[in-house]
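Re-run with default settings, no changes from the original entry. Doing this only to confirm the output is reproducible before filing.
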Amino acid sequence: MTTTMKTAVGWHVELEFQEDDNRTRAAALVRLPDGSEIRAHGYANRHPSDSNQPRVGEEVAGARALNELAMTLLTKAHDEIDEASGRRSHRLT
């Protein structure tokens, strides 16, 4: 028997970057179907001996922002499980 997966909902994550000569800042935003928004930030600092590669700074800062966003989503889900069940559940990782 084959099961067909249907897309019930889609999420769009936005990333914006600000850069100067030595530092890149990433801001991540996801809007959830319940109307809430989750924001996170990530940073990358260029070592003085490294060549100036803005794309690498964006990748590092973006990954860090997305990681923070993921951890915040896990915490939100955990809290919602606890609220719905009325008990304390195991932490999601």
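The mean pLDDT is 90. The chain has one helix and three strands.
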